[in-house]
Design a protein that fits this description.
NAD(P)-bd_dom; three-stranded mixed beta sheet; UDP-glucose 4-epimerase; carbohydrate metabolism; binds UDP-4-deoxy-4-formamido-beta-L-arabinopyranose; globular
């Protein structure tokens, strides 16, 4: 029984691969390295001591996906692969709609052809748009406010329609809040291209001296200190949530959405303080105007995931900051090797 992991070389995908391998699953991993590096693969093998099959494949090639299903007995899929930068999606919507939606349609087509109907989908809290109240529950109306979020919302609807047409489908829609942190080994972590858009990688690069200071986007929100509040979740807790969701889709049918967050909100300045405490590094910052599209407060009600998946986020904010700093300080330039000795199999075109 093999599990196919799309986007398995990415930040969240690689952490999920570690937990899945440590649990004993046989993995087939695909990635096109559009937002990841081959070096991650050898790090996953180093951490777990386990082998897995990897294919450098783009989901826009239906033939390549089909070839993987023909070569392996795939029982379920965890689908991470997709572009995820909100700002970029506003500038290049067609790139996002084509990559994220066509790639998913190709994947589902091939899954169906091979009789595979168990899927865990990497969705996002951005499908909620501007929440009418806090904390957010899964039955809130959806209203993504950017093309990236709309690709996630549209894919959720596509998967629901698939189940209506064929009751063999079993799908978990995992709505991530704000994943941060890194594996405790410090050997895998978040390695954004260019200047980070997200708070935690930006803070960690300020702490490492790669960036001068943090720009705090607004201090006039109705929050504890006026700065934005978000639900930060350790990436390892998030990865473990995928294991629980996989167990559930293998046993059931239907489509269910789950909020994967900590269930707690922390402000930007609280994150700065927590990171300074955990790293011993000062984080200079300056208050700037609000970032367009930001909401003031966003955090999850996680009762459905707690109860239905028997999952709860266990790691603390200190864990998140300490593990981020260990990754950052041990890998100041992120993943640096352009190629790696790991068997990266490229399917014939
Ligand atoms: C967090 C807080 C900012 C950077 C994004 C995506 C979402 C999801 C998670 C994929 C906010 C403030 C940030 C900075 C700052 N990704 N901030 N200075 O916007 O909640 O969610 O990541 O699914 O799709 O939208 O995360 O880390 O960008 O911002 O003050 O340099 O930090 O205003 O309050 P966000 P973020």
């Amino acid at each position: 029984m093999a599990i196919l992991i799309t986007g398995g070389a990415g930040y969240i995908g690689s952490h999920a691969c570690v937990e899945l391998l440590n649990t004993g699953y046989e993995l087939v991993v695909l990635d096109n390295f559009s937002n990841s590096k081959p070096e991650v693969l050898s790090r996953i093998k180093e951490i777990t001591g386990k082998n897995f099959t990897f294919y450098e494949v783009d989901l826009l090639s239906k033939e390549a996906i089909d070839s993987i299903f023909s070569r392996h007995d795939i029982n379920a899929v965890i689908h991470f692969a997709g572009y995820k930068a909100v700002g970029e999606s506003v500038c290049e919507p067609l790139k996002y709609y084509h990559n994220n939606i066509t790639g998913t349609l190709n994947l589902c087509d091939v899954m169906n052809k091979h009789g595979v109907h168990d899927l865990v989908f990497s969705s996002s809290a951005t499908v909620y748009g501007i929440p009418h109240q806090i904390p957010i529950t899964e039955d809130f109306p959806l209203g993504a406010t950017n093309p990236y979020g709309r690709t996630k919302q549209m894919i959720e609807e596509i998967l629901r329609d698939l189940y209506v047409s064929d009751k063999r489908w079993s799908v978990a829609l995992l709505r991530y809040f704000n994943p941060i942190g890194a594996h405790e080994s410090g050997r895998i972590g978040e390695d954004p291209n260019g200047i980070p858009n997200n708070l935690m990688p930006y803070i960690s690069q300020v702490a490492a001296g790669k960036l001068e200071q943090l720009n705090v986007f607004g201090d006039d929100y109705e929050t504890v200190d006026g700065t934005g509040v978000r639900d930060y979740i350790h990436v390892v807790d998030l990865a473990k949530g995928h294991l629980k969701a996989l167990e559930r889709v293998l046993l059931t049918t239907g489509v269910d959405a789950y909020n994967l967050g900590s269930g707690f909100g922390h402000s930007v300045l609280e994150m700065v303080d927590a990171f300074e405490q955990a790293s011993g590094q000062e984080i200079p910052y300056v208050i700037k105007d609000r970032r367009p599209g930001d909401v003031g407060i966003c955090f999850a009600d996680t009762q459905k995931a707690n109860q239905n998946l028997n999952w709860v986020a266990e790691k603390t904010l200190t864990d998140m900051c300490k593990d981020t700093w260990k990754w950052q300080s041990n890998n100041p330039a992120g993943y640096t090797k352009t190629q790696d000795h790991v068997t990266s199999i490229q399917l014939a075109p």
